[in-house]
Design brief:
Blueprint: H1 3-22, H2 33-40, E1 45-49, E2 52-59, E3 65-71, E4 77-82, H3 86-90, H4 99-106, E5 111-115, E6 120-129, E7 133-141, E8 147-154
Antiparallel strand pairs: 1-2, 2-3, 3-4, 5-6, 6-7, 7-8
Amino acid sequence: MSLPIRCAPLLFVVLLHGCAILNPTPPAMGEPEAQVIGRLGQPTHVYQDGNGKLLEYKTGPFGQRTYMARIGSDGRLASYEQVLTNEKFASIKVGEAGKNDVLHAIGAPSGTSYLSLSDLEVWTYPYKESGVWNSLMHVHFDRNGIVQRMMSGPDPRFDPDRRFPFGLR
């Protein structure tokens, strides 16, 4: 039996273990906060949400997934969802939503920048558009911290032709 064939089962186990780390078993609704943290680890950010809180977990390859665990006022898990989705981005109201609204909806950005000509701060989120395309969502804020526009485009880190000389590399 050749070496590659003998190593195939080991490679399969290693790959499965890597997938389990990137996609931990989701917590069950109603679990206490301490149990959620025990299962998922320390959150990347914690946000106050009324009498409860949001635990943010940035994960996945290239930060394309962020999970939010909503802990209710009773200290138990009320919801758990992946928030870097078309639907969540669409829930952000241009001209109304502020920075805290964005943080509570989709979490902290992977990068920030400033457009001096238009005087806008930009938060950037890598994600899989429609679960398929490697994309970046750019959320633009004015000086008052209100969303003025949102723009999605291809993620240049995945451009095989290197046509986009800018971006997160």
